[in-house]
From TrEMBL:
Residues of the Tripartite ATP-independent periplasmic transporters DctQ component domain: 27-154
GO CC terms: plasma membrane
GO molecular function: transmembrane transporter activity
Bilayer-crossing regions: 14-39, 45-68, 88-108, 128-150
Keywords associated with the record: Cell inner membrane, Cell membrane, Membrane, Transmembrane, Transmembrane helix, Transport
Family statement drawn from the similarity comment of this UniProt entry: Belongs to the TRAP transporter small permease family.
Protein name: TRAP-type C4-dicarboxylate transport system permease small subunit
Keyword flag Cell division: no
InterPro entries membership: DctQ, TRAP_DctQ
Species, as recorded: Halanaerobium saccharolyticum
Record bears the keyword Transport: yes
Membrane topology: Multi-pass membrane protein
Localization, UniProt: Cell inner membrane
Amino acid sequence: MDRLVLVIDKIERYLTYFTSVMIILLTTVISCQIFFRYVLNTGVFWLQELSVIMMMLIVFLGASGAVWDNRHIGLNFVVESLPAGITIWVRVLSDLIIAIFSILFFNYGLTMTLNTGGTLSALRIPIGFTYAIIPVTAVLMALFAIIKLINRIRLYYFK
């Protein structure tokens, strides 16, 4: 299990690097869009669609990484003020809820990906392909939450 945690840590680190690069690229793309529109008085029609796709990647990949690192919005001060025996079970319940939500999110995202037709007008990419990030990150979130849940229970019972 510890080896798996190390692998997941490495995956999460790559996700963080990738999303950081995407944020820099998104800033560059939006800056170019502003420059072309307001300085050169012309628009590059495909930059807006590219910006939206990049933003989707950043949000969904960042959310999956946040599951592993416990960086989601939470009421940590409330949980930490509870007795130690209750705190662990609140965290286990939280991981379980995230895993269940992620599985539902996967089903919804897969349905959207497979059933959405058409193409983006500027980039000529199938719209369903752009939605593929939803089920992919849902699998990552579920995997991260389940591994954390198992680890918490294992550490609680087998100290």
